[in-house]
Amino acid sequence: MNDVSASALAAAATAPADNAPVGDNKAAVKVAADKVSVYYGEKQALFEVSIDIPERSVTSFIGPSGCGKSTFLRCINRMNDTIDGCRVTGDITLDRRDIYDPDLDVVELRARVGMVFQKPNPFPKSIFENVAYGPRIHGLAKSKSELEDIVVTSLRKASLYDEVKDRLSEPGTGLSGGQQQRLCIARAIAVSPEVILMDEPCSALDPIATAKIEELIDELRANYTIIIVTHSMQQAARVSQKTAFFHLGNLVETGATDEIFTNPKDKRTLDYITGRFG
After folding, report:
1. Distance (Å, rounded) from C-alpha 195 to C-alpha 32?
2. d(CA 69, CA 216)
């Protein structure tokens, strides 16, 4: 194992209480992908990926670097549209609506499907304005007091308000790395998304900040569908209820997190989680 024993991973994956899905195990499908392929010019980066993402739960994408997990994540809110030469085939639906429907408003889609990036990227604005920006441009607040309520509520949901309530007018860039990442999560929450995509949200953080983000993810799954790309198998085991393993642009295996880590069906999955490659 690269950074943890197989037995430790199995123990983390089978820890029952905190990792149990919210509500019925047969959660409704929030996002569905059917034979999704991605091309960068002539190069194919993703090969016919099909997966159902359950609502109000955490799904982890794991796999070695360059395996396609972040590429697929960016398909879900059409971030790949911004890359010249990128072409996506297949179908992705959000609540059974085709997200590549020509009549669909991409701005509205990205409000419904928020994204938190690997490196915290607060705007060069105050803490308050970082969170207020989205609701303001989307017209979600009818008054100054409503906007203030959205900001405070979002900061509370991101477990940040108590730490910054006396300095909301100070620059968001002045916060610590972990606080900046929680500010970015608050910014995503502020436009009332249904899905939150997280692309390695803890890779630039220290262990204490990482633990806070993981606690936050566990709290947020009661109200949001969360999809997280992570290189840390321990993190996937701790925070997710479903895990998908990618390798060389293919979705190799997907299933309940405890099953993926304790009883994988594909030898490639077993080789990865036991550190034989990756």
Report:
1. 12
2. 22
